[in-house]
Amino acid sequence: MTRTVSGARVLITGAASGMGRLYAERAVAEGARAVILWDRDAAALTRTAALLSEGATGSTTVFPYVVDIGDLGAIAQTAQRVRTEVGNPDIVINNAGIVRGAFFWEHDNGDDTRPTMQINALAPMYIAREFLPGMMSTNGRESRIVNIASAAGLLSNPRMSVYAASKAALIGWSDSLRLELVQQGFRRVKVTTVSPSYISTGMFDGARGPLLTPILTPEYVVDRVWRAMLAGTPQVTMPWTVGLSRVLRGILPLPVWDFVAGRVFGVYNTMDGFVGRR
């Protein structure tokens, strides 16, 4: 188990604000050698980098990169800059994501479906593909890839079809990658797949938690993810009702599950008041 990220190079996407910034603060506090920030918001990225640099010790350097990971070509270009200017990351946290809450037939392919799939599903794959060879070739050093998915990728929900599809793809790829690394003997590169319910970041403003499933705070989620990442835990679902729902969905006939999820737990109405980040 890795106890700390001290001395490591840590790359975080969506790092200018919200949970991404919280991960970056953790990395700085633990004395990471390099904290590499990726975000498309140049102004917010500059502010965050300045604040992190002020709080960093002499052993930590903050490297901000303006990059829209929805532009898959920009990922390769920026990754090359990182390898040249900083070195290959030891830890990659694929945190960035977007959501469009609407019925499927209300989505615009260009404005909604394509960017959701690119940012939530394809970008983490492209980013991991850029840095994974360097992680695999490092002798003796443990590496980590953390993929922030969603409970929506495990359980169907109205008004989340495209988002759910993107997170289901992310979960399937992420855990398959974990198995491939184990099978081929690259046990020092560990993959953690995270599937939380709603988090109060503003991304899901207006959504409400189902029965027994409170809206999670960013601080709680980041703490759980960070500890799981250090330990190399393969999968994290939160809260506990997400795991219970998966079990019930697996053993109940579909009409019974739909009744339980829709009428008892209220899962199918959680997005009725969704407005998202304004």
Descriptive overview:
Belongs to the short-chain dehydrogenases/reductases (SDR) family. By secondary structure, this protein is of the alpha/beta class. The chain has a single domain (9-269), classed as NAD(P)-binding Rossmann-like Domain (Rossmann fold), CATH 3.40.50. The chain is 46% helix and 14% strand. It has eight helices and seven strands, in the order βαβαβαβαβαβαβαα. It has helices spanning 18-29, 42-55, 72-85, 109-137, 161-183, 218-231, 240-251, 254-264; strands spanning 9-13, 34-39, 61-66, 91-94, 143-148, 189-196, 235-238. A seven-stranded parallel beta sheet has the order 3-2-1-4-5-6-7, with helices on both faces. Helix 1 crosses helix 6. The N and C termini lie far apart (40 Å).
List the helices and strands and how they pair.
Elements lengths: L8 E5 L4 H12 L4 E6 L2 H14 L5 E6 L5 H14 L5 E4 L14 H29 L5 E6 L12 H23 L5 E8 L21 H14 L3 E4 L1 H12 L2 H11 L14
Parallel strand pairs: 1-2, 1-4, 2-3, 4-5, 5-6, 6-7
Helix content: 40-55%
CATH architecture: 3-Layer(aba) Sandwich
* Number of H/I helices: 8
At CATH level 3, the topology is Rossmann fold
Shape: globular
Q: Report the portion of residues in β strands.
A: 5-15%
Protein name: SDR family NAD(P)-dependent oxidoreductase
Pfam families: adh_short
InterPro entries: NAD(P)-bd_dom_sf, Sc_DH/Rdtase_CS, SDR_fam
Keywords: Oxidoreductase
In short:
This protein is 46% helix and 14% strand. With 278 residues, the protein is α/β, with parallel strands linked by helices. Helix 1 crosses helix 6 and helix 3 packs parallel to helix 4.
